Amino acid sequence: MVEVVFGENATGSLKLAQAYGKGAYLGGAVGVILHEDGREAAQEEIEAALKEARAREKAAWESAIPLGGNAADVFSFPLALSVGDISEDGVGARRAGVLRRLMTGEPEDASAAVCEKAAANLSKIQARLRAGESVRIWYSHQSDEMCGLYWLVAQLAAWQIPAGQVFLVRLPDWQGGDVRHGSWGDVAPGEWGHFLPLQRQASCENLEQIARGWAALQAENAPLRAVVNGSLCGVPEDFYDFWILQAIAAQEETFYEGKLAVQILEKYRLGIGAAWIALRVENLVQGGRLAVQEEAPEGKLPYHRWLRKTGNGI
């Protein structure tokens, strides 16, 4: 079974999930964070926290359902397809350009490397499906994962892969109680197997509808794509600005940009990454609504800087 996800965190977690829970629990390294304010924890506090963490890990292992397979079955496409130009088919130079814009502070060739690996993965999947294997696509209502589903199904349609070889697993919005995962990247290795009952075989009509939907999104080629009321649609570049501006308004006069991004992601759960927030914040800086109080230290990513409100509309 070919397994497909759309983010690096999901890739690592899924690979671990293939054998997670198989055999007796042997234990492993466990780390805990007790105080985020710099206070030093007492030894008794550390030991109690470690004991609790080990108990949780053991329980997760024993309740897990191993997925089976091996790491070579897992293919990732972390292409951030909710952002930027999607008019080209497959994985090309335009996608590399979008990723380069999002990967500020990374090496110059990082975005090209991501696209080259994605193109290679696409070729490998095509060969395996033509040989008769099936593919299982893990997706959610998170915008990049939903776009990934649409994009990949469009490739399958172009290859004329029968619907009988395609299986879909959508992450539910709520997992019970107050547990909520925004994307498959949030799912722990011991949890993946519990979502297998949600797997469904795709129908011809379903795949055709998704492929047509991607073609329509390509023709529109909006600056962004978002899931609105359950539907994937094109939206303007400032679509998320309302929430970003709300979060900025709640900050002190001078604030740390990295902390702002974390607060936005945790509070509003918009399904976007910190990279897009950084781009929109930089747009506010360039527009004079924010000013840079202190640049990021040398060697640090750009969002490790302090910003100041200018009083110009915020």
From TrEMBL:
Residues 68-161 form the DUF1835 domain. Residues 197-296 form the DUF3658 domain. Transmembrane segments: none annotated. This is DUF1835 domain-containing protein.
